[in-house]
Amino acid sequence: MPILRNITIKYKLILIIMLACITGLMLAGAAFISWEWNTFRSNIVRNVSTQAEMIAENCKAALAFQDAEDAKVTLNALHVEPSIIFGGIYTKDNKLFATYYRGYAETETHPDTLLDKGFNFDKGFLNVFEPIVLDGEVIGTVCLRSDLSPMYAMLKRNASVIIAVLFFSSFIAFLMSSLLQNVISGPILSLAKVAKAVSEKKDYSTRAVRQSNDEVGLLINSFNEMLEQIQQRDAELVDAKEKLEVRVEERTAELTTTNGQLTQEITERKNAEDQLRRAEEKYRTQFEGALDAIIVADAETGIIIDCNPAATRLVDREKSELIGKSHTILHPSERVKGEFSDTFSLHITEKRGQTLETQVITKTGKLRDVAIKATLLEFRGRKILQGIFRDITENKKAELRQVHLLEQLEKTNQELKDFAYIVSHDLKAPLRGIKTISEWITADYSDKLDEAGKEQLKLLASRVDRMHNLIDGILQYSRAGRVDEEKTVVDLNKTIIDIIDLIAPPENIKITVENELPTIECEKTRISQVLQNLLTNAIKYMDKPKGLIKIGCVEENGFWKFNVTDNGPGIEEKHFEKIFQLFQTLTPRDEFESTGIGLSIIKKIVEMYGGKIWVTSKVGDGCTFFFTLPTVPIAVDK
Amino acid sequence: MIILASVLLVAAIAPKAGAGATSSQEYQVKAAFLYNFLQFIGWPEDKSADNNQPLTIGIVGKDPFGDAFEPIKDKKVKDRNVITKHFESFEELKKSAEEGKTRKVEMLTKCHLLFICSSEQKNLKEILNLVKDQNVLTVGEMEGFLEAGGIINFLVVENKIRFEINTSAAEQAKLEIRSQLLRLAKRIVEGDKKTESSEKAGND
After folding, report:
1. Which of A62, A72, A134 sits opposite B184 (nearest CB)?
2. Size of the A and B interface in Cβ pairs below 8 Å
3. Over A199-258, what HEC string results?
């Protein structure tokens, strides 16, 4: 009812009253007409039925004696009733016996069906049937047909009167409701006017005037109270609004800060993602380009998940041949125990992260030595084992060769050492024999020999001595690499004093220690030999009336650098290398008794400790021998 | 004069009455009419005292009905059975009465309705005399029957069976004739006066 919603209360009231009036009048009219209709109908039925009964009674004999004329006479009495348009007497077997017509064509007026008794309505006509009974026996039927149009005409007239009354009443009702609605709508309208004014001007101090003591009066009272409350609330609201604005500003500021943080977070996350992606790409590049084979397998099932090109080369298989297969395809069958290979089992258990050596088998059945370093990773909730395989087949071979070579070398070396020792030792015995015999000859035959003979025998003895020294030197040299001695902590300051005492240098040569010498861990005999040989050499070749020999030591680059400086004849630069070679001397044999072995032994010892030895010199002014020893001693290979 | 006219009338009807199938149909109607007469006639109380006794239709003379009563013989009138009794010619009755056998004559007078066949025309007066005080409805089908003192006489008008009534004869026989029946009569004879009722009801 949208229309009802939009019209004013005034018209609503009028409309409601009118609707009620018209509905009531219409119902009353309808009831009246239907009641009248029923009355008319029952009246006419009763009327016609009476006529039919009369005729039935009167035409009994005529029917019994088949006197149609007489029956017709009886029927003709119907002409007093203008509404009856047809009367018929039917025999027992429903044949028309006598008829009466009024004004209509005969065929139209006959009833369609015959009843034994009673009535029916048929196309605006009423048919009444009455049996003709003679002595308890039905001998025929009377049918009367009555035209109902007079009745309809009467009904129509009545209806139009009622409608006229209805219109008139509605008009009166309209007038009255128009006048009386004001009683109800007046106060409401004035209230509405006030409400509108209030809402438009926002002036809550206005008040509506109460005009009556009914519900509308109550409504106006409530409205006024409400206005008062609103006035109060309004004030509160203004207050609250101000507070709210402050809060909104605060919140906005907070929000802006949060937003900034969020943006930063997003940027950071994005960076992290970028890094991750780059890391992944990097990993992928390394994975694909690695020289070592990399194979990734599920740690729980041992199924290969991924592998790189190096892996396919290692076992001569396509990538597709590996992925999805058990890792056991990689290993020769004797290394596979049950579901996992032994290496795999070790990698995922106690030897996690270690490098294990094993063998893999290629597609063609070739075995390859590999070192596998495996890492157990967690990838998307799945434990995976990433193994890096390095082909060490060639390394293994080289290693074997080296070991073999070393063994051979060591054997040869040993033989050589033994040989030198045995030779020098065995050569000494006949030499000693020759010397003894030459001494015997000198003693026994001094009187018989001339000066020249004695001189030659002397020469023989000196040559034998030289031979003896030579053999001793060789013996010493060979021993330098052989002597077994425990390393001890040696204070070189004490050692140097012992050595100088042992040498007992001549009066004209002075030996000084320039600064404090270190305490080192070494074989005492060997380091003493080095220092003794160098001092002995300096004294031996001293050509100055006042000899000066200085010993010093400095720490330099993890080494102790020792120097022994003399003011002797010096050495030409071209001999700097030569002097350290075996059996090399710079002066003729007869001038200085020298075997040419001493410096070779020093060099051998220094190098054994991982140090170096070299010489600097200016001819005529003397020379300086330098040698170094590591401050942290290295293990000497014996 | 009357007798002559009656004779003539009968002569006119007789050939029709004796005419095969039509006559049997005619007598079926007449038989039904006889039953109907019983409906519209009131007998004095002493004649119809005992309701258990059947109503009797007597037929005297040469019976023209044949088996025309067959279809209606079980029909009741005023809750009473109807029986038909056949009497020989009146001469035979007279003879037997003279011989002392009066029972048959007695029976004749006991009938409620007595149909006098055309064959008894010559004995008509005697028969009517015999029954005139016996409350018997006399029915005939001959010219001059009413004039002879009969109560109802069958006619054929326009091929339809009609009848005429002698009300004074009926009064004499103490029979009450219903007005409806009277209205249907083509002619009503009251005493010596004749009323042409057919004139007023005829072709209306």
Report:
1. A62
2. 41
3. HHHCCCCCCCCCCCCCHHHHHHHHHHHHHHHHHHHHHHHHHHHHHHHHHHHHHHHHHHHH
Q: Could you tell me which of B92, B145, B156, B93 has the C-alpha nearest to residue B116? A: B145
Nearest-CA distance B64 → chain A (Å): 20
Q: Which CATH architecture has domain A485-630?
A: 2-Layer Sandwich (3.30)
Q: Taking Cα atoms as reference points, which of A497, A534, A535 lies closest to residue A516?
A: A497
A278 pLDDT higher than 70: yes
* Distance (Å, whole) CA A155 – CA A521: 153
Tokens 């009419």, residue located = B33
Q: Are A623 and A599 in contact (CB under 8 A)?
A: no
Angstrom distance (rounded) from CA A227 to CA A222: 9
B-chain CB neighbours of A73 within 8 Å are 201, 204
Class of domain A290-391: alpha beta
Burial of A566 (0-12, 13-18, 19+ CB in 10 A): buried
Verify whether the Cβ–Cβ distance B184 to A61 is below 8 Å: yes
- The tokens for A348 are 């995922």
Contact A301, A309 (CB under 8 A): no
| CATH for the stretch A2-168 | 3.30.450.20
Q: Which residues contact A453 (CB under 8 A, 6 or more apart)?
A: A445
Instruction: Tell me the three state secondary structure of residue A505.
Output: coil
pLDDT band at B9 (very low <50, low <70, confident <90, very high): very low
d(CA A84, CA A45): 11
Reported ipTM: 0.75
For chain B, domains (ranges, CATH) are 2-41+53-201 (3.40.50)
Chain B CB within 8 Å of residue A58 CB: yes
**Cα–Cα nearest to B162, from B48, B36, B67, B78:** B36
CA-based nearest distance A112→chain B, Å:
28
Is A290-391 the same fold as A2-168?
yes
Q: Is A134 on the interface with B (CB under 8 A)?
A: yes
- Cβ atoms of B119 and B61 within 8 Å: the answer is yes
Residues of A with CB below 8 A from B201's CB?
Answer: 69-70, 73
Q: Looking at the complex, report in whole angstroms how far the Cα of residue B52 sits from the nearest Cα belonging to chain A.
A: 17
Whether residue B184 and residue A58 make contact (CB cut-off 8 A), yes or no, is no
Are B78 and A69 inside 8 Å of each other by CB? no
What are the extents of the domains in chain A? 2-168, 290-391, 398-477, 485-630
pLDDT band with cut points at 50, 70 and 90 for residue B48: low
Q: Please choose, from the candidates A94, A56, A61, the residue with its C-alpha nearest in 3D space to the C-alpha of residue A75.
A: A56
Dihedrals phi, psi of A68, to nearest 5 degrees: -65, -35
pLDDT band, residue A250 (cuts 50/70/90): very high
